[in-house]
Amino acid sequence: MGYIPVENQESRESTIVRTSVIGILVNVLLASFKAVIGLITHSIAVTLDAVNNLSDALSSVITIVGTKLAGKLPDKKHPLGYGRIEYLSAMIVSALVLYAGVTSLVESVKSILSPEKPDYSVVSLAIIASAVVAKLLLGTYVRKTGKRVNSASLEASGSDAMFDAIISASVLLCALIYIAFGLSLEAYAGAVISIVIIRSGIEMLRDTLDDILGKRYEPEELQAIKNTIAEDSDVLGVYDLILHAYGPDRHVGSVHVEVRDEMTAEAIDMMERRISKAVFAAHGIIMTSISIYATNTSTPETKAIRDKVNQVVMGFDGVLQIHGFRADTEERTITLDIILDFDLKDRRTVFENIRTALQEAFPDYTLYLTLDIDF
Q1: Contacting residues for 132 by C-beta, under 8 A, at least 6 apart
Q2: Under a CB-based contact definition with an 8 Å cutoff, are residues 306 and 329 in contact?
Q3: How many CB atoms lie within 10 A of CB 215?
Q4: How far is Cα of residue 210 from the mean position of the Cα atoms in its chain?
């Protein structure tokens, strides 16, 4: 996670392209052998496995194109770059996998209704066994590389290759069962293969949609960034950390920090510069906005109000945090942000109940409450 320099982006791009090219060559080679074997042996399972290899090769082509387009330098129209194109290419790959699974299932059902007896040879079995080994090695390599360079497309391709190895192994098992017992299970194996492909396509599509919609970051990642910010001596609290992804390795963020209310504008400016440098150095994230909450407990009256507010609000189930507190004893106003757990069945009702309880505790004050988001 983070924003990587141009030279590292170029290295990442070349790694993805090189890995994808290897995947294309291996899949085309396997598809060719399996297609020949499928036609010779009249095995629908082997033929569908060959089609699956071709779809994998096409997926690798799309990954290359998407990576190339996503690697374009930022310009006036897209100042944060084109990294999100990788999400679109991953969606296309997912759709292709899903389409291949559906069409394969249709052909499998046709073969179940109108079966043909397969005719295996030692050579065909040896090629299928070799395909299992090849796919295991390819899947391990591609997935490991995808994790290293943070490429969702490569990780998906690697996982898909591992599935293919299992599928090819099942085809080989069906062939051995037919040779040993004369029981033809190829069409049924083809149906199972198709279902596995469909499931894989749906999962890939779901993950890509999560990236496009904007999903929650891992708690460990968010906490690590908050810890980096909290290390600054002038920061009393860190809240509302929001990150936006403009590609797998391009992230910008904003945050609220609580500071002493006597800090000068110059001191705040210096603190913000320190935080921006520290976050970028530790996490590679560009902080586009650092907003300020000033502590409001410098007088006994405001401190007593804050303690009472905290007691009332935290007495409700599902309250994760309160922040942004400010009490103006002259204007008679209380301002507060409240974070409620998404697991609550009716967050709005709980929020209104909190408002009612606070209003009863402070009848002479006007309340400005915000139902904040749990990031």
Answers
A1: 165, 168, 169, 172
A2: no
A3: 11
A4: 6
SS3 367: strand
Residue 104 amino acid letter? S
Interval 240-259: pLDDT, tens = 898 888 876 778 899 999 99
Q: What is the pLDDT of residues 213-244, one digit of tens each?
A: 777 778 888 899 999 999 999 999 898 898 88
Distances (CA, A) of 240 to 78, 215, 293, 352: 26, 15, 11, 21
Name the residue among 225, 217, 248 with its Cα closest to residue 90: 248
Say what the pTM is.
0.61
Cα→Cα distances 164→59, 97, 136, 354, Å: 14, 12, 8, 54
Residue 65: CA atoms inside 13 Å, Cβ hemisphere, count? 11
Instruction: Kindly give, in sequence order, each residue whose CB lies less than 8 Å from that of residue 256, ignoring residues fewer than 6 positions away.
Output: 238, 239, 240, 290, 291, 292, 293, 323, 324
Please write the tens of the pLDDT for every residue from 314-348.
Answer: 999 999 988 889 899 989 999 999 999 988 889 99
In the chain, where does DSSP find H-type helix? Answer: 6-41, 44-70, 85-113, 122-149, 152-181, 186-213, 219-230, 265-283, 300-313, 347-361
The closest of 333, 332, 334, 352 to 344, measured between CA atoms, is 352
DSSP output for 147-203: HHHT-HHHHHHHHHHHHHHHHHHHHHHHHHHHHHH----HHHHHHHHHHHHHHHHHH
DSSP single-letter state for residue 334 = E
